[in-house]
Amino acid sequence: MIQNDGTEGTEQASTIEPFPLDRPGDSARVILRPIAGHDRDEFLGLTRASVDLHHPWMSMPTTADEFQTLLTRYDQSDEECLLVCLRDTGAIAGTVYINSIIRGRLQGGSIAYAAFAPTAGRGYMSEGLRLLLRHAFEELRLHRLEAQVQPGNTASLKLLRRHGFRQEGYSPDLLFIDGAWRDHERWAITAPMAGTRPTPPHHTQPAH
After folding, report:
1. Residue 69 and residue 99: Cα distance in Å, rounded?
2. Which of 43, 119, 139, 174 could be 93's S-S partner, Cβ–Cβ 3.0 to 4.6 Å?
3. Which residues pair with 115 in a beta bridge?
4. HEC profile for 27-40?
5. For 47-94, how does the pLDDT look when each residue is reduced to its tens digit (9 = 90+)?
6. How far is the CA of 171 from the CAs of 151, 163, 179, 186, in angstroms?
7. Bridge-partner residues for 144, per DSSP?
């Protein structure tokens, strides 16, 4: 169990298989790892420093209680919160999420991501998203990932285009953010589109 003070967070991280980090094409600058309780102080310091960067597109935890809520949510088999960390120092540069993983005939999930102000604009999140796609399609053996982005969030849309996502639609009043229901563009990518290594189907995928 992870306590509110975050002292036992390493237990959560140890239960997740480490990602293979040194295959050809891996980022030379960043790695992904699961968020854990011991990240609390660094994570909250970064979210507080990044409020202006994230507004009005998203709201992130800025208190210890909100951080604990985040840990509790992502301590589930159908949700993942991963930190984008600098390979040489371990410092956190951003965070990526896989939400609402559905198995069976869909084998899909929804992603979200956020850079942190101290290291924003240096390409770390682009490298982190590339690793996330590989993790989702090769390690988790998902088939499809979706992303919902507000139309004015040009930086986020540019990131999706760079990694091969295609726009599939537009949803008015999709998510409640910053005090109002916000319109979102819907983008998606599949494993073949991403060019990831073919893997056997997940055991929950039907044979027919």
Report:
1. 15
2. 119
3. 94
4. CCCEEEEECCHHHH
5. 999 999 998 899 899 999 999 999 999 988 899 999 999 999 999 999
6. 10, 22, 18, 7
7. 108, 190
Beta bridge partners of 182: 175
Alpha carbon distance 137, 56 (integer Å)? 30
Residue with tokens 């982190």: 128
Instruction: Give me the pLDDT at residue 83, please.
Output: 97
CA angle 97-98-101, nearest 5°? 160
Alpha carbon distance 76, 100 (integer Å): 10
**Lowest-pLDDT range, 81-85, 172-176, 196-200?**
196-200
- Would the pTM count as exceeding 0.90? no
Say what the pLDDT of residue 184 is. 97
